[in-house]
Fold each of these.
Amino acid sequence: MNISFKNFEVKPNTKITELPTDLILGKSKSELKEMLDQTRRQLGKMQNTLYAHRKYSVLVCIQGMDTSGKDSLIREVFKDFNVRGVNCHSFKKPSVLELSRDYLWRHYKKVPARGKYAVFNRSHYENVLISRVHPKIVLGENLPHINTVEEITEDFWNKRYEQINMFEQTLHETGTIIFKFFLNISKEEQKYRLLRRLNKPEKVWKFNPSDIDERQLWDKYMSAYETALNKCSKPHSPWYNIPSDDKPTARYLVAKILKDRMSEYSDIQYPESDLDKSLDFYKKRLENE
């Protein structure tokens, strides 16, 4: 299959209704699983090289509506990574301590060190997604000059997009490779997955009544996503639209995009050892013990 990561990049002036939620690759579930297994093994080897090289880091942001498959995708795509080289962070409602800082502070604290991956399960984009749908959340930040919802204007949101772009630009310029995946599911598929949660005893614990309330705001969320994707998809930190109505397909696409883009960094190599000329000496010393 000739799949290029460039085909999934969000282009300027994208309409979210024109982005596909389903993609037929003509492969069975078992074939997709085998393709994913092979790709993530390659990713695991590349991660070891990145860890030894220690000049780049990788930030992977996963965003999507409830039930879009974020948790299971992270589990399956990063299964073959060495645990010392990858950290996953899930950003829920900010704490009192986090609200006393700027909104990017808690995210900046979790960006990956050189040689490592960090996966953001939901990310700094929550501050222009759920906060935009529910602007009362912004009031909890106790910002100067923002005392009512009416004072949260379009200029306020545009400034946030600029701040997020500058945040990512700084990360990029200091060696962080950024991936941003939008797990795009249809409203019909979300309904099916919510019903499945309610009908399966082993999944009902995942259900939250607020999921139904948030579903009623679908159009508002799609508008917020469309704006964020268009404002913040840059050459150094592009957004990728991942058709996610089929989970195995979505997992494979994310793994393949990661592998193919990381393959372009030909300078990521195992470092040369300063001991190369002395290796025989140390080998003989060990052998002669």
Amino acid sequence: MKKIVCTILFVVSLFVFVKSSFAQVEPISPDRPDQTESPYVVPLKSFQFEAGFVYEKNSQNGTIVKNYSYPSVLMRYGVLNNLELRMEVENTNETTEENGLSTSKKGINPVSLGFKLNACDEKGLRPAVGFEISFSLPNLASKERKNNFTGTSILLAMQNSITDKFSAGYNLGASWDGNTAEPTFFYTLSLGYEFSKRVSGFAEVYGFMPEKTRADHRFDFGLSFLALNNLAFDASAGLRITDNAPDYFVNGGFSFRLPK
């Protein structure tokens, strides 16, 4: 009983300390849980950590593929007022069920390194604009997950405030997976609403358009809760729009930022 009481007191004390330490900083603005990247960067000399769990099911032509990502981690560091460095690490487990047989492929995907530049802030009808470039390194991965070449992703991120509580974010970009020379173009459109100072939500459509195969389009929605100015929790889910997209996915995670 003593140990339980001491543990509870320690957790409460830590929470109070963290809350008082982070009370004066600006609220955190993660790039999760939606697919749309914000045009804004983390504050100068701040470190931000975003992590989550994703489960996705995809059934096509009698084959069922279940993807687990635990965790998916994004680390961001502000090197200038308008520039951040980014590193993404994702541990996955892919299970395929076909003709009564089940196979599993697990490991760490190629680590992604890149940066985001906030080119300009919003002014009138002009959106806030950001650019993001990242490279997935084929040798920084588990043996089963290595690619043949370095993958690349280029993204244009934009955002408009419609009202004080309602905003729209949208991305356009292209990526190369490191295994083929063909690009995959992609888009996102996310509408966000601030229900209160602590709770916000979004609804989003997005899609992927490979150069030589059929495009797939998807829809997702979710909520974020700002526990502290430097700590947020989120949950989201998504569904297919076209029949060649995954059936559905669920996602949950958290984000925190260390102050300057």
